[in-house]
Every structure is written in structure tokens, then in C-alpha cells.
């Protein structure tokens, strides 16, 4: 697992942070420890743009720094909190490439999953009650893969329980997306496409309500194609699941995040 593909002092330092004017010259000339401490201070205050500025300076000016791993962890967090999701994913990828043996790979994968989930979100869809499952879902599929990798390789991670909850929510969402596509095909008399879509749902999302709801579409599609044996097999599956209901998972809340410490 330690190779994954590409897929954040004392009185004197506190005074240095306070006295910093934030000018371009400060960033270009300040020593490594000062830049890092200023960036940490901004991070704790929730000023993510300034935190990114100083932590990036540490990363660029002191690439072999003893702070390098922590800087990357903090940048992942700061970019995510500032909703710069592209840079979050770039930084996650850089972290995995630079620190393939880090004990915080689970955090990197978790943040990748959260970021890809966020890319699949849309405020206006939430506001107007539009079901996101009916929209384009590449990012949400990638989020599922991120969480799945986390769960498989780090089953004891503190991030795993939340990742599992998010996977359940994503799976139900993807299944509803497939059901909408199956309905679309059925309305257009595309019975082969309808049946194939539901077969795929049975393989990928067997434990979702949307898949149960899709079974009658498959049965009727086989009937329309005069495929009696397949229609009868589907009827038996429907009968075996009569009365069964799968709860729709609630959308997980935004987690209470902070960057982990790279200090051993």
C-alpha cells in the first residue's frame, strides 16, 4: 500500500509573527522557521489565504525542510477550507508522491474523497431541491473510489467510519442516477439498454432501494422483447424481495477537520 498512484516558538518567534507586515519582502527573505510559524498562526486563525501564502513559501524556498511533510498536510487542509478544490487535489497527489510511507496517507485519501464529493455538490441544486443523483457524476464516482481505497488499506483509520457512511450515501446516489437512465431508455422503447442498465445495477448496487425499484423495468423490458425465460427469472427476483426496503442514507455532515501532526 505504501505506493499510491496519482491519481499543513516561543516568545521571540511570537514577536516575529506579530511584527510581520505581510509584505512580499517578508515572504522572499524571512527564514524558514519564521515563515512556517506565521503560516501556522494564520491557519489557526482561519485566514486560509494567508496561511497558504506563507506555507507555500516554505514549500518553494525550502523544499528539503524538516517541515515539508507538515506543510503539505496543512496546505491540503487550507486549500480544502478555502474551497480551492483543484489545488487540494494537486496537493494531495504531491503529498502521496513525496511521502509514500507517511503515516498520514489515510488523511490524504480521506481529503481526496471529501474534495471530490464537494466537486460533485452544487449549492443551487441543494437550495432548489434538485436530486444531484440525476446530474453528471464523475467526481462522485472518484470520491467513492478514494473512500474505498481508504477503507481497504486503512481499516483502523479514524477516518474510516465516516468514509463508510459517505460510501453508503454515494452508492445510493449513484444507484438513483442509474435508475433515471434506465427509465429514460424504457420511455424510448430501448429495452435492451434498459435491461442491461438494471443488470449493471444488480452487480454494482444490489443493496439499494433504487435497484429494487428498477427490477420491474427489467422484467417488462424482457417481456416486450419476448424473452420469457429472462422475464420469469426477474419476476422471481421481484417476488423474493417483496416487502423489502432499503433506507436511504442521510447526507453526511461536514466533518470537524484539522490537519494531523507529522511530528512522531
Outline:
This protein is mainly alpha-helical. The chain is built from 13 helices and no strands.
Question: Which characteristics define this entry?
Answer:
264 residues; mainly alpha; 13 helices; elongated
* Beta-strand content estimate: under 5%
Q: Average the pLDDT over all residues and give the rounded result.
A: 87
**Strand and helix order:** HHHHHHHHHHHHH
- Can you count the helices? 13
> How many β-strands, per DSSP?
0
What shape does the CA trace take? elongated
Return Rg in Å: 24 Å
Distance between the termini: 20 Å
Write up what this structure looks like.
- Helix content is 67%, strand content 0%.
- With 264 residues, it is mainly α.
- The longest helix has 28 residues, at 160-187.
- The protein is elongated, with a radius of gyration of 24 Å.
- Residues 5-21 have low confidence and may be disordered.
Itemize the secondary structure elements and their pairings.
Layout: H1 11-19, H2 24-29, H3 32-45, H4 48-61, H5 68-81, H6 85-98, H7 105-119, H8 123-127, H9 138-153, H10 160-187, H11 191-204, H12 209-224, H13 228-240
Helix pairs in contact: 1-3, 3-4, 4-5, 5-6, 5-7, 6-7, 7-9, 9-10, 10-11, 10-12, 11-12, 12-13
Amino acid at each position: 500500500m505504501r505506493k499510491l498512484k496519482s491519481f499543513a516558538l516561543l516568545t521571540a518567534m511570537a514577536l516575529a509573527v506579530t511584527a510581520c507586515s505581510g509584505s512580499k519582502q517578508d515572504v522572499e527573505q524571512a527564514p524558514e522557521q519564521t515563515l512556517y510559524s506565521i503560516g501556522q498562526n494564520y491557519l489557526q486563525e482561519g485566514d486560509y489565504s494567508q496561511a497558504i501564502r506563507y506555507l507555500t513559501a516554505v514549500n518553494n524556498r525550502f523544499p528539503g525542510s524538516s517541515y515539508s511533510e507538515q506543510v503539505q498536510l496543512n496546505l491540503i487542509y487550507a486549500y480544502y477550507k478555502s474551497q480551492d478544490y483543484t489545488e487540494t487535489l494537486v496537493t494531495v497527489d504531491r503529498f502521496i508522491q513525496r511521502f509514500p510511507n507517511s503515516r498520514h496517507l489515510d488523511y490524504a485519501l480521506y481529503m481526496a474523497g471529501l474534495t471530490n464529493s464537494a466537486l460533485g455538490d452544487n449549492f443551487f441544486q441543494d437550495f432548489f431541491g434538485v436530486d444531484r443523483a440525476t446530474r453528471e457524476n464523475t467526481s462522485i464516482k472518484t470520491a467513492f473510489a478514494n473512500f474505498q481505497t481508504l477503507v481497504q488499506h486503512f481499516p483502523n483509520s479514524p477516518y474510516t467510519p465516516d468514509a463508510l457512511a459517505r460510501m453508503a450515501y454515494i452508492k445510493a446516489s449513484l444507484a438513483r442516477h442509474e435508475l433515471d437512465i434506465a427509465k429514460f431508455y424504457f420511455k424510448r422503447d430501448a429495452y435492451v439498454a434498459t435491461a442491461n442498465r438494471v443488470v449493471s445495477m444488480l452487480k454494482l448496487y444490489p443493496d439499494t432501494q433504487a435497484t429494487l425499484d428498477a427490477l420491474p423495468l427489467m422484467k417488462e423490458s424482457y417481456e416486450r422483447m419476448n424473452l420469457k425465460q429472462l422475464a420469469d427469472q426477474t419476476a422471481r427476483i421481484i417476488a423474493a424481495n417483496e416487502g423489502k426496503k432499503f433506507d436511504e442514507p442521510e447526507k453526511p455532515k461536514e466533518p470537524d477537520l484539522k490537519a494531523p501532526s507529522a511530528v512522531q
